[in-house]
Structure formats: C-alpha cells, structure tokens
C-alpha cells in the first residue's frame, strides 16, 4: 500500500496512521521524522498500552469514549483491540453501553463521523452524499433516531447506532471500514428534553411526518443508487410503522433490509433452532407466545412462519402456532379492525385475555419478549413455563440490559435450571445447584455483518427472505454440542469472524442460486469471501 500524504497529514488519517509503530524507513519516506517519539513500537506493544489505559477507565461510558478516540486516530489498532478482546469490548462498543452513549451523544461529541442529512436538505441529498470522502461505499447504516433500542426518540443523538453497527461490520465480518458509511436522517425530535438541551446537535423542531418525511427518505434511497450504486442500505431503529412502510416500499427495488425486523428475526430463529437441538423437538411442534407486537416481534414471527413452511406446514398452519400479546392483551380476531397491518396475520379466534392467562391457556413451549419493559417475565410466568415444559424456551430480547423482560439469574433460578434462556444484552454465567449455565446473547451482530459481507462480495441486487433463513440456519449450525450442554444457544463472541464468513457464504450462495448476484461465481466461494476480509496488520507505506 502507498500514500501521497506526507507529514502530519499521515498522522491525521486513521486509515493509514500507525503512530509509534511507523518504522525508521517509513518515518524518513513519509516526512515523519521528529513528529513522533524516536522509539519504534510493535503493534503488540501498542495494544498492550491500549489495554492498560482501557482497563484504567472507571465506567463503560469512559471506555466507549476512549475506544472512539482510538478509532478516530488508528483504525487498524482499534479493530485489533476489538477482535482480540471482543468479549470485553462488544458490550462497550455496542449494547448495552451504546444506549448510554446515545443518550449522552451531544455531551461526549468529539469528532464528526458519517453524514447528517436533515429535513432542510430536501433537493440536495445527492450532493451531500458526494461530500463523503470515499468514492466507493459498500454498506450504509441509516437511522432517523426515533426508536433507539428500548430508549425511544433520541433524535440526532441516535447517530451512535449507525456508527456502532458499522464498527461491528468491520470487527465481526471484516468489511473494510473505508466501505462503511453511517447516516443520520435528522427530521427533528419529539423529545422535549433534548430540544431544551443547549448542547443538542440536531434540529430544534418536532419531527416531520407524512408526505414530507416519505419524500426525504425516498430522495435519500434514490440518491444512494445514483452516488453509491450497489451499496447495501441497512435501516436501523425506525419506529414500527415507518420501519414496515420503508421496508415494504424498497425491499424489492434496492439492496436493503431492516435490522430490527429481519436481523432480529434471523438471530431469534437461529436461537430457537439451536434450542430445539436440546429439546429434541421440531419447529412445527412449537407454540410460540410473544410479549410485544412491534417491528421486532412480528419480524421474528414472520421469519419463524417462513421456516415452518419450509418444514412442511402451510402458511396458515404456521401462523396458528404463533400468538402475540400487545399492550391491550392477546391479539385476537375480535380486535382486527383496530390492529396495525403487521399484527393482523396473528389475530386468531380466541377470547381476549392478558399475558398470564394466555400462558396458562395456550401452553406455549417458547416465550419471546420484545417489549422494552423490564420485569414483565415474572417469577409466576417463568415457574408456569417450567411446569408446562421439561425445558421451556424463554427469550428476553429487549435492549439495553435495563430493559430485559427478566435477567438470566431470574430465569435460571425460578426454573431451577430448566429454562433454555437467551437475552438481547449480555448477562454473566449463572450457577445453579452446582452447575454453571452460559447465557446465550441473541445479538444481531451474529447476523447482519455476514449478510452484508455476502451481499457485497457477490454483488447481490436484493436481500431476500431466503437469505435470512439461510443465515439463521447457518448460525444455529455453528453452535457446538459442548455449548448446548452448558445452555448456550449461540456461539461464543470470539468466533464471530468465523461465523460471519460462514453466513456470508450461505447468503452469497442463495444470491447465486436465485440469480441475484451480479459478480461471476468463483470456483471456491468460501476462499473468495475470506479474501475480502479486512486485515488489522499494518501495511508497509514506505
């Protein structure tokens, strides 16, 4: 690798900066002599310094700020640190700490990253995209900040989500960071506390709605096709009705997906498929009860239906295996006229009732929580599930940790270790009756990086339901019997690179099979995809 930059400009470019690791020859050739302390350090030695300072920080938010600063000055070292300490750093660069970072985003802001497109930019969105310094973009993560995790409307503060997601695209799947673009669609915020904050970075106005909002989103999507053709758009943390509307409008027109609907669905389906290796039951035998009926819940339900259909059920039979409970109780046919469209397929003939009576009456084999309301899986609920099933499946998927429907300790303790448990945020192992249980974290990072890698490498023109089914199946297959014996239904985080490559191969294979790939199929697809994985070793710039 070579660069035309010299002197301070080299040190200010995080993509090529090596700091104290520049060799003597590089210092002479690049005009760095005297701009750095004279001793040359290896990347290993630099990493040791990073970890010493990282672990000196007293709070996870301070660690988040420290890692952000490292990413802003030396990308290779940042990703080396994350890859080698992913169990330690994943909860800091993403859930749950990213939620706190978003709440404090305006107060901890140091350096801009990504693009901000506001409601005032109608008519010039393509020009704004052209301001991005990289001509080639492979993946864009975009949000409007209205439904950040379980925290609600955080407006422009939600930019922390696209930044964090794209860090995981590189760390987990090895997509080159130069191909990654975070985007904030700032259409205002209805969070009055933010608008009253003198340091808030976003527009000081209520959110635009209706046609004005739709036209801005449409201009953005079409501008991406013009400026960065072939780039994957990942929609993130949009409120439910916008999430579904945007996905339905563009999924068959451009390369895009919604992570909250489809990514969450795939990781939850994979968890269920792995859990069924423990129960020795089939997917069509399950009765699944959801607490929560938003985009995440119905997205999971839709993909589970597709998986059941693939195993021989009709779509109607599969939907009858799935029930939803929303804020008004069990979703039933007598409520159909008042239900949102995404809930109607699951409005079955049944008496209206609340959550606890629904568990008693329906006798579900699995509970899936996607409420954003902590403590809703009570002791009574978990104990009842353990009475109904030898190995009840309980997924408390709401993020961040403070929003989980129950904790791992509660789930294992109340069920005396019977439960097969997964959560959206990490929990520590739990010891019950002399046995240690590893908690499975249903983190979307198991899915979306591999989806992106596979789609980019093969040049897929669309992201399909079959790709998410393939991704879920592949993820479930990556769980070893030893992990299952310990109660964990996902692979360890340290295996994320390997898992993401396997998913990328499955996604690309699906694209080739369905005629969606625009790149020629290589003889060895696995090796071809591995050849695109970002390397954290320093390049020789001399």
Describe it:
With 542 residues, the protein is an alpha/beta fold. The chain has three domains: 116-122 and 131-254, 3-Layer(aba) Sandwich (Rossmann fold); 262-442, Rossmann fold; 446-530, Rossmann fold (3-Layer(aba) Sandwich). It is 44% helix and 10% strand. It contains 24 helices and 14 strands. It has a seven-stranded mixed sheet with strand order 8-7-6-9-10-11-14, sandwiched between helices. The chain has a five-stranded parallel sheet with strand order 1-3-2-4-5, sandwiched between helices.
Brief sketch in words of this structure:
By secondary structure, the protein is α/β, with parallel strands linked by helices. It has 24 helices and 14 strands.
Count of discrete domains: 3
Under CATH, the topology of the largest domain can be stated as Rossmann fold
Rough shape?
globular
Structure annotation, total helices: 24
Mean model confidence by pLDDT: 96
Fraction in beta strands: 5-15%
Q: How does the SSE layout of this entry go?
A:
Blueprint: H1 8-11, H2 24-29, H3 43-56, H4 60-73, H5 75-84, H6 86-93, H7 97-103, H8 105-108, E1 115-118, H9 125-130, E2 139-143, H10 160-173, E3 180-186, H11 192-195, H12 210-227, E4 232-235, H13 240-250, E5 256-258, H14 259-279, E6 288-291, H15 295-310, H16 315-319, E7 322-326, E8 329-330, H17 355-362, E9 366-369, H18 379-388, E10 393-396, H19 408-414, E11 420-423, E12 430-432, E13 435-437, E14 440-441, H20 448-458, H21 465-477, H22 481-485, H23 496-513, H24 525-530
Parallel strand pairs: 1-3, 2-3, 2-4, 4-5, 6-7, 6-9, 9-10, 10-11, 11-14
Antiparallel strand pairs: 7-8, 12-13
